[in-house]
Amino acid sequence: MQKGTIGVSTENIFPIIKKYLYSDHEIFLRELVSNAVDATQKLLTLSGVGEFKGDPGELKVRVSVDQKKKTLTISDSGIGMTAEEIDKYINQVAFSGANEFLEKYKKDANAIIGHFGLGFYSSFMVSSKVEINTLSYKEGAKAVKWSCDGSTEYTIEDGDRKERGTDVILYIDDENKKFLEEGEIRQLLRKYCRFLPIPVVFGKVKEWKDGKEVETDKDNVINETNPLWTRKPAEIKEEDYMEFYRDLYPMSEDPLFNIHLNVDYPFKLTGILYFPRIKSNIELQKNKIQLYCNQVYVTDSVEGIVPEFLTLLHGVIDSPDIPLNVSRSYLQSDSNVKKISGHITKKVADRLEEIFKNDRKSLEDKWNDLRIFIEYGMLTDEKFYDRAAKFALLRNTDDKYFTFDEYKELIKTNQTDKHNNLVYLYSTSREDQYSFIEAAKNKGYDVLMMDGHLDVHFVNFLEQKFKDCRFVRVDSDVVDKLIQKEEHQELKLTDKQREELTTLFSSQIPQLSKSHFVVSFEALTENDSPVIITQNEFMRRMKDMSSMGGGGMMFYGDMPDSYNLVVNGNHPLVKRIVEGVEGELGEKLKSVYSRISSLESRKAELEAAKKDKKEEEIPQAEKEELEDVSKKIKEQKDKKDELLKEYASGNKLISQLIDLALLSNNMLKGEALSRFVKRSIDLI
């Protein structure tokens, strides 16, 4: 028997492995099974080139648990090892500057294991002792047994293994007893080893017989050695892709479609990506892509490995050019990974463009589900935008679809304003903005539907991308001002009438929570609505961005919603209100206006008299009179406003016009709605 010390440059290697790799301790099973698969594949390679002339036999990796002995064993029939090879590959864990390296990477299990081939040593995270029983495939080789208890000391002696291959036996320590439970091992094998290229056996297949579960003689193979992505796309049917998806994501709806990646140059990359149906929360859908290296599971946290917008996709990516055991920060800076990321973007764009060219109707039918991926991609990836601009679609309120160029051609005649800007009208709710959509369509305009998860941001983005254009929500102004032309109506109201109508209408607007109204006037036609409520495009966009967490815009979220109550000064009903005021308040208002006029004339004289005088040169009596005149002007104006407010409170037509405008914007609720219904009945 040979004894020795493992060749490391620090005696702390095992305590460090056990301590710092603890949070990732389950990966030990992946490492050991992967090693067994590698040994088996090497035997197949040697057999293929004639270096191994024997019978390979049944090549399987077996995992077994013995709860009495507290052991977990991984066995293979691969190339095995000689005593010299054990000394070289197991004992000489030698690397320079070990202390410095371990200190640097002590919080990152994958970095330690991946950089220095310490996969086998991950077994000491869960074991009090590890044994290797092995017999090399080489002619005349002797069986070897290696044993280590987690210190730097080991023993090598003659083994008793009769057949080629290796057993790695882990004596599971008390802290990790869960790794002796069949259910735990089955779950880990399913997670890490379900697509390994060599059959992995764990126990026997069980069947129900006479009301109970019994073991059969058939090996329970837990993996699919020839998974779908390793096969040629020409050999695969659509139903195969669907079945594979259902196997990966048992509780999910069927996907929209898939993209089969199959690249040989300049790097090797295979995989299948699926476009899932996304209903609401984007975040819940991330981390569904499984990353593999030669069919060995690496991770499902793929941010930085695939482009950000494609983290919403589901599926599998496999590449030997992706390092198996390194930290994510290393992956994200790896040049191969960056090339792979760019290539995946290209393949996704190519596939979408292919569908657009060959079956546009299919793309249109799926667009409402697809657009979140495409918009997200265009927002976050400039190269993807350049490609997607050819097939990205815009949908209008009639549910017709257009490419960017097609839509520009459609609207450029009618929707170019006097500054030669192309105005894209859009709606975020067909129901809430119905009357505005209809008014725009009656003018010959077309209205886009922008009601998706990301459209608040996408509208701003397209406004920057498209040349000489503006995006305007259809309810942001009266229809005649949405797209400003040279021609305009004349407002048939005097300044005094506008002032009076402002007081009349503003006094009767219901108090709505977090809402502020400003009365304004527009010269519309007699066929347009008498009163319309609009919302400023800029302020509303800022609030929308704020509600979605837009950086630097959070203060907009605390501001009240600001609306314009637009009075159509040319409407017959507005004229009737003006005539009613003149009929009932004419004499009273005339007296007030006369008094105000007289007082303002005197105020003008007093202000003219003090002009060019220093404060001390103005007689006290004049100062007091000016103050008194200003006070009386205010009193008269207050009296005028009181007369108008009193009139408005008894005028059902004013309240009815306001409420109709609120109702058309879905803003009339609660008590105000109840009053409107009662008033409507009274008016009928």
From TrEMBL:
Pfam family, one: HATPase_c_3
Membrane-spanning parts: none
Limits of the Histidine kinase/HSP90-like ATPase domain: 24-176
Region (Disordered): 609-632
Highest taxon, organism lineage: Bacteria
Annotated positions binding ATP: 31, 35, 76, 81, 96-97, 166, 328
Transit peptide is among the record's keywords: no
The entry's keywords: ATP-binding, Chaperone, Cytoplasm, Nucleotide-binding, Stress response
MF annotations from Gene Ontology: ATP binding; ATP hydrolysis activity; ATP-dependent protein folding chaperone; unfolded protein binding
Keyword Acyltransferase assigned: no
Family per record: Belongs to the heat shock protein 90 family.
Protein name: Chaperone protein HtpG
Name of the coding gene: htpG
